[in-house]
Amino acid sequence: MYNKGKNASGRFYFNIERLIVLEKPSSSNFIRNIVIEDLKSGKVDTIVTRFPPEPNGYLHIGHAKSICLNFELADEFNGKTNLRFDDTNPLKEDREYVKAIKEDVKWLGFEWDGLYFASDYFEEMYNRAVLLIKKGKAYVCDLSPEEIRATRGTLTEPGEESPYRNRSVEENLDLFERMRKGEFKDGEKVLRAKIDMASPNINMRDPVLYRISHATHHNTGDKWCIYPMYDFAHPLEDAIEGVTHSLCTLEFEDHRPLYDWIIRECEMEHTPRQYEFARLNLTNTVMSKRKLKQLVDEQYVDGWDDPRMPTISGLRRRGYTPEAIRAFCREIGVARSNSLVDAKMLEHFIREDLKLKAPRTMGVLRPLKVVITNYPEGQVEMLDAEINPENPEMGVRQIPFSREIYIEQDDFMENPPSKYHRLYPGNEVRLKHAYFIKCNEVVKDENGNVVELRCTYDPETKSGTGFTGRKVKGTIHWVEAKNAVPAEFRLYEPLILDEEAGEEEEGKTFLDYVNPNSLEIVQGFVEPNMKDVKPHDKFQFFRHGYFNVDPKHTTSDKLVFNRIVSLKSSFKMPK
Fold it and tell me: Membrane-spanning residues where (predicted)?
């Protein structure tokens, strides 16, 4: 769809059908300033970052912020970025998620320098754990998970030492080896770091480093039955890969002392530095993979790629472009304090991206038949219509016009209020790209519903002829009936009604805020030149908004369009 390169100023550009879209260079932020200073001082020679997802779900828009930060930071300073899967929990991980994550990163426009898995380093991690035991810095504990939690203490009270804390080095080495050999049941024993049960940082109170899990791993099969905890594995992975700047969100700030302790006590050759930034919180959605998985599992949505989901695959299926998402991530920036971003800002960037790219066309979502009684029967004429008035280079298309057309039901009212400028008995409007028509007769069914309008047209008023004899106040869109292509339109509203569903009220869960009207499906028609569209083709339907050809439900016999976003919004970009 596009070719990626750099112009003379170093900014990325994307060549899209003769349209050049220049993307802004990285804006300044505190992490970027740290990188600049580290390079300037000689603290590091080359920047190495990584994007380290756990393969236990699909990526969402919050991950896109992290992806853009890591990859663009390394790109700017000629560094490297690894894609690494933190696959330390076989009970929740799956190859499906690995495949989806790789696809999402590539779709966003990034290529990783190295592809790694935490499981690639399991032997190395085991050896480092043995080193900790030999140094008297780790011990095998027989307390159950519940007992460990109960003796951990509180923010104001120290924890209680395990009765197994002072086992000898020899006994710990023997037990840990037997754990590896599979001699114990799940939960029967764990390996814990020996740090400080009175530490004001609860994460330093003898955290668990290894647990037993007799489960098949997606990458290592049944080779292992003990698995490192995330807080133990993560810093070792960074050190092994030579990561210079380990970027994570603020909830890991309290874990940083443990991160540093593990690297130091495991005597790693390389010492990365962890930096925390604010995660992305978006209105009217949830950003927890656990909650998103619950929406999928309980069938509130049509899979991880449901267009109502904030997942990257959901945004892609809805019709968002990688350019729009990258621009959005740059605009929200990188900060040290959490904040809530209006979802309408994301919508702003897809409008900006598509306004010059998307062909214009007409679609009738809720059809009402119109018969133009004075138009010659059997005659069909072709009318010229611009493909995109904001980008004249895209040229013109031809659309058929004949005696019978479809208009929108809400473009007609039998008894309209004042200042209603569309069609009603005795009123005249312009058909977009065509003629003036006047409503003369209303046809109803036995229930009193309007099913057809009888109109006349004025042949002198053809669009583009320069007719100035009189003016009309309303212009409506239409589709010629005989050649119209049936289509399904899927219209979306926010999935979560409450702006801050993450802040759940007492007695409620986020599911109580799920919008039962987040999806509306209507059947209508599109212009005949749309019959050969392909999945992910994008269009602006006159007055209705921007739409994407749904890749999941569109077939050779059925066209399905997802509305990406409406044409207008009350949202104003902050200055």
Answer: none
Kindly name the residue from 279, 344, 366, 369 that is annotated as catalytic: 279
Binding-site annotation, residues for L-glutamine: 86, 230
User: Could you say which DSSP state residue 496 is in?
Assistant: B
Residues 406, 412, 414, 415, Cα dihedral to 10°:
180
The span from the CA of 341 to the CA of 568, in Å, is 19
SS3 track for 259-290? HHHHHHHCCCCCCCEEEEECCCEECCCCCCHH
| Spatial CB neighbours of 534, under 8 Å, sequence gap ≥ 6 | 549
Give me the pLDDT at residue 572, please: 78
Distance between CA atoms of residues 338 and 281, nearest Å: 8
User: Which residues fall within 8 angstroms of residue 574, CB to CB, at 6 or more apart?
Assistant: none
Give the bridge partners for 454, in sequence order.
371, 441
Structure token pair of residue 511:
């599911």
Find the distance separating the first CA and the last CA of the chain, reported in whole Å.
32
Q: How far apart are CA 62 and CA 557, in angstroms?
A: 36
Residue 99 among the catalytic residues? no
Q: Tell me, what's the pLDDT at 4?
A: 35
Quote the CA–CA distance of 75 and 147 in Å, as a whole number: 47
pLDDT for the residue numbered 573 = 76
With beta carbons less than 8 A apart as the criterion, state whether 521 and 448 touch. no
Known catalytic membership, residue 18 = no
Q: Provide the annotated binding site for ATP.
A: 54-56, 60-66, 249, 279-280, 287-289
Q: CA nearest 370: which of 330, 334, 423?
A: 423
Nearest to 299 by CA among 53, 42, 519: 519
Establish whether 331 is a catalytic residue.
Answer: no
Residue 409 DSSP label: G
Q: Whats the size of the chain, residue-wise?
A: 575
Enclosing H/E stretch for 383: strand 381-386
Grouped pLDDT means (10 residues each) for the chain, 575 residues: 34 30 58 96 96 97 97 96 97 96 98 97 98 98 97 95 98 98 97 98 98 96 97 98 96 97 97 95 93 96 97 98 97 91 96 96 98 96 95 95 98 94 96 97 96 97 90 96 97 89 70 95 97 96 97 95 92 74
Angle at 450 between CA 447 and CA 456, to 5 degrees: 150
What is the C-alpha separation between 19 and 444, in angstroms, rounded? 49
Candidate list 256, 289, 330, 563, residue with the active-site label = 289
CA–CA distances in Å: residue 146 to residues 110, 156, 183, 206: 43, 20, 22, 15
Q: What is the pLDDT of residue 10?
A: 34
Q: What burial class does residue 462 get, using C-beta atoms within 10 Å of its C-beta: 0-12 exposed, 13-18 middle, 19+ buried? A: middle
Handedness of CA 279, 280, 286, 292 (dihedral sign): negative
- Considering only CA atoms, give the Rg of the chain: 30
Q: Which residues lie across from 221 on neighbouring strands?
A: 217
Question: Is the alpha carbon torsion for 525, 529, 533, 538 positive or negative?
Answer: negative
Residue among 112, 107, 106, 119 at smallest CA distance from 55? 119
CA-based max dimension of the chain = 101
Known binding residues are 54-56, 60-66, 86, 230, 249, 279-280, 287-289
